[in-house]
Amino acid sequence: MNHSLSAVLRRSFSKPYPTAVRGAGAVVWDEAGRQYLDFSSSAAVNFIGHGEREVVEAMAAQGRELEFVHSSQFVTPVAEEFARELLDFAGAGFRGGAVFFTSGGSEAVESALKLARQYQVEIGQKQRFQVVSRRQSYHGATLGALAVSGNIRRREIYLPMVREFDKVATPYCYRCDYGCRECASRYAAELERVLAANPHAAAFIFEPVSGATLGAAVPPDGYLREVAEICARYGVLLIADEVMTGMGRTGRNFAVDHWGVVPDIMVAAKGLTSGYAPLGAVLAAPRVVQALARGSASFVHGFTYNAHPVCTAAGRAVLKIIQDRKLVAAASCNGAAERALREALEGLRAHPSVGDVRGLGLLRGIEFVSDRQSKAPFPHDRNFSGRVAQKAAERGLSVYPMQGSVDGYSGDHLLIAPPAIISPEQVRWAGEQLHAAIEEAARG
Ligand SMILES: Cc1ncc(COP(=O)(O)O)c(C=O)c1O
Question: In whole numbers, what is the pLDDT of the chain averaged over residues?
Fold first, then answer.
């Protein structure tokens, strides 16, 4: 089909997209019968694998009973139960808290920003309304989420429409601003300087492991703990955006668990339903909920599709699979999937175009360079990561290419984030195909 004639407004008018018709396990098929190994779970979405009947049946059963009610008029058993299970999954810091369900990550981030603002108003800190965030970050496509995002290309043309607040640097070990000398404290000190000078700061939002923008850049040990202490000292709420890293993706229930940090607000989506239904969640710690409950006794915010029964039924069924099949352990450093992935990607380091391989659990990044010694990136218009992804797709391997890790424009990387049910054989095969795809992109 001529894609310019499509009735769907696509992301690209020039890219030829295959038509996906079926999925099972870690594989997706197109209408021509070609199969693609889903090595990035589309965009780090699918964690349990495609085609799980239990999830689809749970959604159908809920739909048959009750498809929808509005959250201003009713609550539902399925949302209440899923919220309790999710708080339990989030650990002791969230017990006694509450969950606000949305239809995806951006809506959940918007909701978290507004919840942080309302919290400050409720406790008498009306002057606090700004949300400090980090450069080279991504928190969503809606205007509030885009305002706190640092991803230059995704926000560039919308800048006149968004409100700008303070931003600090994101730790990036491969290109560390501080030459890796006491960098955890020095990155954290940037935040302290900003908060000390800004009486209007209500919250600080961050991705515990940088997702798409920097390609799975893991912070140095100690950084997040210092950040949490600084926020607490300045009366600023800590919002962990776990849209990409949550629900087991990094080998812990939530990525902040790696460093023993308990945020005030946590945002989840993507792996929350593994893509079976559109759902996001804002998890609020008890003190945040209590401030609203004891104050105005309402949350001045809402969407029509809050806590949609069919979507929360999908979330419950997905969480049950994650727990019954021990998929968080599979993604952890003792898990078969993680070990195979680490080995396969480490094997790519030998390629002269591969500058860095990084990440945690089943969230990994490969950064490409034109010169390993100087770490010089490829020219932006060569679109090196896009070409690797195209070559990989021709070989039946699906990966997530990004650009901009160096300065927002140049710097090519791939995000690798397979579902936790991927087999070691599939991972090894993917590693070979990726090596060949990098080779072809480097030649061409
Ligand atoms: C860290 C992070 N936050 C928020 C979002 C926005 O989520 P959604 O695309 O579901 O709106 C994304 C999406 O990639 C993300 O990676």
Answer: 97
Q: What DSSP assignment string belongs to 284-334?
A: E-HHHHHHHHHTTSS-S---TTTT-HHHHHHHHHHHHHHHHTTHHHHHSTT
What is the pairing mode between strands 280-284 and 265-268? antiparallel
Report the CATH number at residue 110.
Answer: 3.40.640.10
**CA quadruple 341, 343, 345, 346: dihedral sign:** positive
Distance 211 CA to ligand 1 centre (A): 9
Which atom in ligand 1 lies closest to the alpha carbon of residue 207? 1
Same domain for 122 and 227, yes or no, is: yes
Beta strands in 65-146, from DSSP E residues, in sequence order: 98-102, 130-134
Q: With 0-12 CB in 10 A as exposed, 13-18 as middle and 19+ as buried, what is 259?
A: middle
Helix (H/G/I), strand (E/B), else coil: 136: coil
Return the pLDDT at 1: 47
Domains: count for the chain: 2
**Is the entire prediction scored with pTM above 0.90?**
yes
Question: In percent, how much of the chain has pLDDT > 70?
Answer: 99
Provide the residue type at 142 as one letter: T
pLDDT over 90, % of the chain: 98
pLDDT bracket for residue 444 (50, 70, 90): confident
Looking at the fold, whether 286 and 369 belong to one and the same domain comes out as no
For residue 170, report the distance from its CA to the centre of ligand 1, in Å.
17
Q: What is the arithmetic mean of pLDDT over 170-197?
A: 97
Model confidence at 342: pLDDT above 60 = yes
Q: How much is the average pLDDT of 303-325?
A: 98
Q: How far is CA 312 from CA 102, 225, 275, 280, in A?
A: 10, 32, 12, 10
Query: What value, to the nearest 5°, has the Cα angle with vertex 136 and ends 17 and 405?
Result: 60
| Token pair belonging to 237 | 């709420």
Rounded CA-CA distance 405/411 in Å is: 5
Q: What lines the ligand 1 site, CB under 6 Å?
A: 43, 104-106, 109, 138-141, 207, 211-212, 241, 243-244, 269
Query: Is the dihedral angle over the CA atoms 248, 362, 131, 303 positive or is it negative?
Result: negative
Q: Provide mean pLDDT across the span 382-398.
A: 97
CATH number of the domain within which 46 lies: 3.90.1150.10
Nearest CA, atom 5, ligand 1:
140
pLDDT in tens, 417-435: 999 999 999 999 999 999 9
Query: Domain range spanning residue 233?
Result: 55-324
Residues 111 and 8 in one domain: no
Which of the listed residues 243, 254, 267, 276 should we mutate to test ligand 1's pocket, taking the one with most ligand atoms within 8 A of CB? Answer: 243
